[in-house]
Amino acid sequence: MSLKPKTNRRNFLKTTGMGIMGFPLILNGFSGVAPSDKIRVAHIGTGNMGGSHIRWFSAFPDAETVALCDVDELRLANARKLLVANNSSANPELYSDFRRIIERKDIDVITCATPDHWHALVAIMAFESGKDVYGEKPLSFTAKEGKVMLQSLKKHDRIFQLGTQIHAGDNYHRVAEIIQSGALGKIHTVRLWKTGGTSGLGFPPNETPPATLDWDMWLGPAPYAEYTPVKCHGTYRSFFDYSGGVFADFWCHIADIMYMSLHPKGLSSIDARGDIPNDGIADTPKWIDVDFKFKDLDVYWTTTPPDVPGADKMGIGAHFEGEKGTLTCDYDKRIISIGGETTHDLSEVAQSIPRSPGHQRNFLDAVKSRIQPESNLEYAREMTLPMHLALISFRLKRKLQWDSHKEEFINDPAANFLLSREYRSPWSLPVY
Amino acid sequence: MKRVSIFFAFLLISLAGFSQNTDRFTSLFNGKDLSGWMMPGKVPGFEVLDGVLVAAPHNGSELYTETQYGNFIFKFEYLLSEVGNSGVLIRCNPENPWGTGVEVQLLAPWTPYRDDLHCTGSIYGHVAVSNRPDETTGIWHTMEIKCNRKNITVSVDGKITTVADVDTVKSMQGKNMAGAIGFQSNHSKEGEFAKFRNVSVLNLDDDPDYVKKGFYSADADIRKQAGEAAVLKGASIIETLAQMLSENNPKAQAGAKQALFDIAARKSAVNISKDEKKAVEKAFKKSVKNSSSEISKNYLNWLLEMLSAD
Hints:
Number of strands of chain B: 13
Number of strands of chain A: 16
Strand order of the largest sheet of chain A: 14-13-12-11-7-10-9-8-15-16
Largest sheet of chain B: 8 strands, antiparallel
Strand content of chain B: 15-25%
Distance between the termini of chain B: 52 Å
Number of helices of chain A: 13
Distance between the termini of chain A: 43 Å
Oligomer: heterodimer
Structural class of chain A: alpha/beta
Mean pLDDT of chain A: 93
CATH architecture of the largest domain in chain B: Sandwich
Number of helices of chain B: 8
Largest interface: A-B, 26 and 29 residues
CATH class of the largest domain in chain A: Alpha Beta
CATH superfamily of the largest domain in chain B: Exo-inulinase, domain 1
């Protein structure tokens, strides 16, 4: 059975109004998809998350991975092996420079699992070349990059899904339903946490980069730096030049449930406290606590779980406090407490939010339907913004006031300066 | 010839000035009022009488320096009444002085007799005196307290009484490595007193080279202390830190990178005076000029941009 023309599929989705819920039906029709109808995928960045991308996208009969890219030859070779292990007929082209993938007209989709400081530029260059993007979290390295990504996506009419795969699970959808039902009353406070932080990494000497690694390309738009292995694969998030530590690693996953449920607006102040490790070259938070003031909502991030029942057993979590009750959850569990009674679900709250067919499936469906997926760029940008602002408050060691309409700090030029970072030549962030 | 002799004259003057500086203490008490000090408590515990600092009111406020000191030599003269009881708080946060810092005891030896862990010169309750000082009341004694990173030395009347390596004192773990210096108010009964005069300090952290050495320490606490001292110094240590950035030493590079950021961050706040900011900007500009490494130049320029953003 061959696929119907794209326009028909898109019309079908729109006219039936089934959206995501309709996809299980369509999926049945995908067995034996003609090669010419397959979505042609390239994976850029093939480390830990890149490996997951390879496995995930190999499982879809309507997607074909045609290219892999990594600045590390050894990783690239392993990625090829992993792909072939998942799909024996795969025969990907291998690249060390992602621009060769961007140039290819026959590639529909790229996934991006590079270090954070590359996320925005890879996505923007993909958009400009007419490709859709499944991009890892956090969305971008700076707040400004998020803005430019969104402008680029709109200009080029592209599809983007942020790689917050927890979003697709039933628990997040159910939590959002319960919160939105009003069963807990008006929510006035949210507490988010993630235990653990950056460790110092010691004081390793600088080294010549291995011949198998294009260190200059790995650095890309980041300032040039001498090489030492801990700055690179696996632990690069320990450095503010490339990321923002455990906080930046996990903010998008757990702030997601708050945005999905409440979509808070009107952020007005950000006050971060914390410390960096003192036993090594790492410079991102060992711990960080942040107080955010939104319109009608107080949000607290902590590195230790809040003092609420059940939180101490969750390494990461969210706690919603409403006028009538509370809800504490992590990726796959939830505890609801109303009037001293504890439960895991509220039968009176009907299912109202369509479930995801899976985060990557949701993306591929969006590529076909041209309807943005659940963790689309507009949503992801809003959700990621407080993370950037909190890290600026942490670094400057002061409370910051935010104008959420102008999207700039009030009366703090240095804080505004840190909303962006000039790229190292020859890289540049487009101006739209 | 005349020029040469003028040059030598200048050289001599500056050398003399330098040698004077190295052991020159700054007076912390002007004999008239308590400027440079603060009494956070409700009831004043100190007053100035005839050029002498007197702690007489019972259970009044402690007295603290407004300046923070990490490494220093603090010296003063004291006189205790018959059963006088006071002390010197070091490296403390006035909001929780005994929790964050320690007290060097000043105590009359009579009624009741106190042991070596609680007598004058002891680090009260933490480190006993090894050499008990003259505790005669009613006469002036001198005390000198030296905090040199993790070593604390107390001398009374020119003789060392107490030597402590903070690391070997279990009860001192987690104490601050910098903070205010304070005098305890009259801790004896009503009518007793302690008097102080010739109060002065030599701040070891005033010397950029002293602070710099801290960055290379194998001890994380000392490196952290050096970082904090550098941030307090601001403009005057930027050049030193900028040179460390280019050193082939990961401790120097990482420590300097962070301290430079923290200086720029602190001075970028809108409540910092223009002059203060300008001095820091000037130091950054100079360090960019003097830097031989492109990586360092870029970083310093970036900090300068952050600092000068408007």
